[in-house]
Amino acid sequence: QVQLVESGGGLVRAGDSLRLSCAASGLSFSTRTMGWFRQAPGKAREFVAAIDWSRGLTHYADSVKDRFTISRDNAKNTIYLQVNRLKPEDTAVYYCATDRPLRWPMGEPDYWGQGTQITVSS
After folding, report:
1. Nearest CA to 66 among 89, 83, 88, 91?
2. Which of 6, 15, 18 is nearest to 82 (CA)?
């Protein structure tokens, strides 16, 4: 029943921007913390960004905090990740995830999407 579906990835050049989307269904979206993670080739999955359910609280990994912006639209059950000034080291599969209701800071997710690929060429 629970589905998280990412979209918006692609092949871009260094310095380009993208907006990733994650459409959620089958859960109480407006009460859940949502986040983005990524996994680069040969590396472990790592945290990227999180946003709380309604207060606008956000948290970012140090590697992306000056370039990425997470947001949400509760009316659309969707979160976004605006990724600017992309670097080759941003190349990864980006995963949407959610934690349990009213949990902040975000902990270990209980549901994951399938991921969307961002490839950044130099």
Report:
1. 83
2. 18
State the pLDDT at residue 87. 97
Contact 67, 48 (CB under 8 A): no
Residue burial 22-44, b: 16+ Cβ < 10 Å; e: rest: bbbeebebeebbbbbbbeeeeee
What type of residue sits at position 99?
D
Provide block-wise average pLDDT over 10 residues at a time, the chain (122 residues): 97 98 97 98 97 94 96 97 98 98 96 98 96
User: What stretch of H or E contains 98?
Assistant: strand 92-101
Q: Which residue, among 86, 90, 89, 96, has the nearest Cα to 116 in the 3D structure?
A: 96
Burial class (CB in 10 A: 0-12, 13-18, 19+), 51: buried
pLDDT at 55: 84
Which tokens is 87 given?
């670097």
| pLDDT at residue 92, as a whole number | 98
How far is 101 from 40, CA to CA, in rounded Å?
29
